[in-house]
Amino acid sequence: MQDQAERLDRGRSKDLLSGAQVLSGQLGKTIQRLRKAYNLSLSELAEQSGVAKSIISQIERNETNPTLATIWRLSQALDVSIERVLATGDEEPFIERTSRADTPILLSEDGKVRLAIIGWIKTVEWLQWYDVSADPGGVLDSDPHQRGSVESLSVIEGVFEVDVNGSVQRARAGETLRYRCDRPHTVRCVGETPGRATMVVIMKAAVME
Predict the structure, then answer these.
(1) Is the pLDDT of residue 10 over 80?
(2) Where is the HTH cro/C1-type domain (predicted)?
(3) 36, 54, 154, 157: least CB-packed within 10 angstroms?
């Protein structure tokens, strides 16, 4: 009986270790995807979260099991619920719903353009899409994405203007502007009313050569 109990204890310990490794591995991938979605370096995330850069690097490489306090700090810095960070890939439903509270919002420097990250975090390295809302006169300046990247701006409401290296085009509701975004580019809301648009960024990995 004692031998059987010991075998059961060893089995449970093995299952717990295996489960912890799976959770830790998924956690690292999730942290890395979220960090890249915000275009944050390890140093920037460390500064915003209060978690050491070396620890974040180890988490992303699945070399450590972080404490709950560490996971909480990272989730706060990445503006996502801790439940979302801890969810494993195998447990995700085929139909996934994201609440407004779990949708990260990026702001332009003038505070007049808001980008809600509505794209799937698993595709962020090659495909990103956003719900764009802008006040009249709002300006979104963007640095170049990686070489070969293409951006599409589909206007839902208002009037938007895109400037890529001095080449300027405008689009109204129902129209789409598609342009290379591997160089500095600017999106402006030039109408007298607020603007809404959907922005899709296709990174080089998805662009046919």
Answers:
(1) no
(2) 31-85
(3) 54
